[in-house]
Design brief:
It is a single chain. The chain is α+β, with helices and mostly antiparallel strands. α7 crosses α8. The protein starts with a helix and ends in a 5-residue tail after the last helix. It is built from 20 helices and twelve strands. It is elongated and about 155 Å long. Helix content is 56%, strand content 10%.
Length: 565
């Protein structure tokens, strides 16, 4: 039984009165009892204050929404000695109360939240037939903001309790006392409803009506909970917005290059796979490394954003599948040009034949001219076929092949009395690229994407826990020997996170099936190339050895094929 403030005031006595009364044993006994009750009341209030403070701190520090919802329910039940409780949250359209947490000690039920058990009960509508729904007690509280305290729902009037009664009939439970409180946030908006059921007398275990003294305290908890929930939801919404922004950028890059989004997804998956393997590795190189949740998040976002700089890279450079490709493959122009050269050569020989027809009719001269013409046309055709094959990136272009291309480029034909080369200087520059399809100038353009990535990301106000994302994202082309780009970082300056993303990026690029400019390597070829990179101090040897030892490539391919268990 709680001691009232009025009783406390009536029992305050002066020292002289206490001395007088202490002479009387009965009064002394009464005085001792009163003082004990005052002390107990004060201690109880101090305990409540401490508990409220603890709850407030816990609510404000919890960032997981499911855990926070459970904490609200559990603290409210503990405070009110409630046997059961339901927590509803108003949906974004403000049309329904959605079940979020359902707990019942007697029936041993834990649903929603972190339990993993979905609540399959229908939402409570806030409107029926276009009118506000006052029949359900939870919707009534959500609409009016009033607190409802019902001693016995079976005897209550004004609300429809057929739902709880049906539930009782099916479970054998007896819903009796109910306390329903709105959750108001800092803007005084009602965001949910807390429904407490069957308060129990702590001494007898009997179900009693919720005492009035619980109401203010529980309402205060509900208010704190609503503010904490709103803040946590805002943080989650901001995080979701940030990830949506990242994915929007990835989609934008995808519009420039059909393969890039797949590349980004795969690099993210493989980077996290490597990072998590490092976390669990017992190898001496990694035993002290434990990447926490925030550090893993940094790697994930950096991997998502590592190619954001390609937004500024011309599409033809990103997707350059042949050496002569710009907006289109210029091999078609050369084919037209060589057809024109063939016609010019044929016309020259026709003119010679006409001259001989006027002067003499020696058949052997015509035969010789035809033979010479055919040889020239054949050579011209061979030259074009060689150019055509050289236009396709493949094996390393040999010195002899490069010299042959230069020789063809020195050949000329007359067009409108002006000498024109078979191959222009710019075309030759592209065709004699030794490996791949990019010229030195184009390689510089595409390499610039790493520097642009840093400049773009460095403008974003990343929170403290993600502050190194720009550094990690822009360093995935750096090499341990200092020959990488954009900053030519040395080994001691290259963080672990960038090394992880670099290996993921290289392996994905070597084995990717969707590159327009090269055929994918098989696993054996790719690992040989990466092993050479390890030996030449380009990639991190410890991470690569772990990648091989744990056969992460198999896990990666399994995940990408959709067969992961």
């Amino acid at each position: 039984m709680a001691f009232s403030s009025e009783a406390c005031n009536e029992s305050i006595l002066s020292p002289s009165e206490i001395n007088t009364l202490s002479k009387d044993k009965k009064l002394n006994k009464l005085l001792t009892s009163v003082l004990s009750e005052v002390k107990h009341y004060a201690e109880e209030q101090i305990a409540h204050i401490k508990q409220d403070s603890k709850i407030g701190l816990a609510l404000s520090s919890e960032k997981n929404i499911d855990k926070l919802l459970e904490m609200i329910v559990m603290d409210a039940r503990k405070m009110t000695k409630a046997d059961a409780s339901t927590l509803y949250i108003i949906d974004k359209e403000n049309k329904n109360l959605c079940f979020k947490i359902l707990q019942n000690d007697t029936l041993n039920i834990r649903m929603g939240g972190t339990s993993g058990i979905k609540i399959d009960l229908p939402n409570v509508p806030l409107y029926t037939d276009g009118k506000q729904n006052y029949s359900n007690v939870s919707s009534y509280v959500a609409i009016t903001g009033e607190i409802v305290n019902i001693p016995d729902v079976y005897k209550a009037h004004g609300f429809d309790f057929t739902g709880p009664m049906k539930y009782d009939a099916s479970t054998g439970y007896r819903s009796k006392s109910m306390l329903v409180i709105p959750l108001r946030n800092h803007e005084n908006d009602i965001i949910g409803v807390l429904q407490l059921l069957n308060s129990k007398d702590p001494r007898t275990g009997e179900v009693i009506a919720f005492p009035d003294e619980y109401i203010d305290e529980t309402a205060s908890l509900a208010s704190q909970a609503a503010v904490a929930l709103t803040n946590t939801q805002l943080i989650k919404d901001l995080k979701d917005l940030f990830y949506s922004f990242i994915k929007t950028i990835a989609t934008t890059i995808d519009e420039k290059s059909p393969y890039t989004l797949g590349h980004i997804n795969r690099v993210v998956d493989l980077s996290i796979m490597i990072a998590e393997t490092i976390n669990t590795s017992k190898k001496k190189q990694f035993i002290k490394i434990k990447l926490d949740e925030n550090e893993l998040e940094e790697i994930r976002i950096a991997a998502w954003m590592h190619d954001v700089g390609k937004i500024t890279t011309p599409e033809y450079v990103i997707d350059k599948s042949t050496k002569l490709q710009t907006v289109f493959d210029r091999i078609n122009l050369l084919e037209t040009r060589f057809s024109l050269i063939a016609k010019i050569i044929e016309n020259e020989y026709l003119k010679i034949k006409i001259t001989h027809l006027k002067n003499e009719k020696n058949e052997s001269i015509f035969t010789a001219l035809d033979s010479e013409l055919n040889e020239k046309l054949k050579n011209l055709e061979n030259d074009f076929e060689f150019i055509k094959s050289s236009n396709i990136p493949g094996e390393l272009l040999s010195e002899d092949d490069a010299n042959r291309l230069k020789e063809i480029a020195r050949k000329t034909y007359l067009l409108n009395d002006k000498k024109q080369p078979y191959i222009s200087e710019e075309e030759l520059e592209n065709l004699i690229v030794r490996q791949g399809s990019l010229t030195a100038k184009e390689r510089k353009i595409i390499e610039n994407h790493a520097a642009v990535t840093f400049r773009i990301l460095n403008q974003l106000p990343f929170p403290r826990k993600l502050v190194r994302v720009p550094e990690y994202a822009s360093s995935h082309h750096e090499k341990l020997d200092g020959s990488g780009y954009p900053r030519a970082l040395e080994e001691e300056d290259l963080p672990l996170q960038s090394r992880i993303i670099a290996i993921a990026d290289i392996f994905e690029a070597l084995t990717a099936q969707d590159r327009p400019y090269k055929k994918p390597m098989n696993l054996k070829q790719a690992l040989k190339v990466m092993n050479d990179m390890k030996k030449n101090n380009i990639i991190d040897p410890d991470i690569y050895d772990l990648f091989i030892e744990k056969k992460l490539y198999d896990q990666f391919f399994l995940k990408e094929s959709g067969n992961e268990s």
